[in-house]
Amino acid sequence: MIYTVPFNPAIDYVVHLEGGLRPGSLNRSAAEEYQFGGKGVNVSNVLKTLGYDTVALGFVAGFLGDGLEQGLRDMGLTTRFVHVAQGMTRINVKVKAEEETEINGMGPVITADDMAQLYAQLDDIQPGDMLVLSGSIPKCLPDITYAEILAHMEGRGVQIVVDAAGELLSTVLRYRPFLIKPNHHELGDLFGRELHSDVEIVACAKALQERGGRNVLVSLAGNGALLLDEAGGCHRIHCPSGTVRNSVGAGDAMVAGFLAGWLEQGDYDYALRLGTAAGSATAFSLGLATREDIERLL
């Protein structure tokens, strides 16, 4: 089984404008939609699209949390969210105009008792299962939260994936996660530099491997992706051609596609191809990609 942990799930309110956003003036939407978001939720959604069931753990709060949880269940996803007492599940506003503008909400307050409930759920995960930790965490939690989870799961035979930035990512490396997926900006930030070439990206990715990341997948936006695998291989792939319509969720779709490809064939080249197809298909769509679009690009 694959478990995802959306620490900060959200209802995304997507607003489409005709022309550009005019700050300080009245703006009227040309179209709008609601999506159930958060990086862990997106991973679960795309894995479901590719035929793999997941269990989404994490936290929800208030009537928005109830609505999000019911919406995910209506979509066929299995959830075991902890319902917390303080705060409210986020609403994220995504403005689609000449440029994309995002306003992300804060999320609920997660207490020590809430975290204890999550750890009790993590204890049910079995050897051979996968656990995906992705995205930001609420400000009420420390940046070592992911590292504390990996320490808790150490020695249990669980394959752990971390898609995060900064200290959330750097502190987990000592626990040898199965896969980490920084984008090239996040990778450069870890080393205090901008990365301009594959040679620089490989060098930094290799440094993360030496610190404990078993497989390092670096997403490069429109330039594809690069993977250093734990067997010593270096894989480079470019994106298929298409018109980018949406940047939200593309990295999450890449993670989901990579995991689906790895589970299907146990082959890094195929996993990278399927991950890139899923990420690109999402970027070329208004929402998360359909299976038909992913298979066409693959």
Strand order of the largest sheet: 6-4-1-10-11-12-13-14-15
The largest pleated sheet is described as:
9 strands, mixed
Question: What is the helix tally?
Answer: 10
- Rg calculated over all Cα atoms: 19 Å
Helix content: 25-40%
The span between the termini is 25 Å
**Helix-strand topology string:** EEEHEEHEEEEHEHEHEHHEEEHHH
Low-confidence stretches: none
Written overview of the protein:
- This protein is α/β, with parallel strands linked by helices and 298 residues long.
- The protein has 10 helices and 15 strands.
- The protein has helices at residues 39-49, 62-74, 112-122, 145-153, 166-170, 184-190, 198-210, 250-265, 268-283, 291-297; strands at 2-5, 10-16, 31-37, 54-56, 59-61, 78-79, 82-84, 90-96, 100-103, 130-134, 159-163, 179-180, 215-219, 225-228, 234-237.
- A 9-stranded mixed β-sheet has the order 6-4-1-10-11-12-13-14-15, with helices on both faces.
- A hairpin with a 5-residue loop joins strand 14 (225-228) and strand 15.
- It starts with a strand and ends with a helix.
- The mean pLDDT is 93.
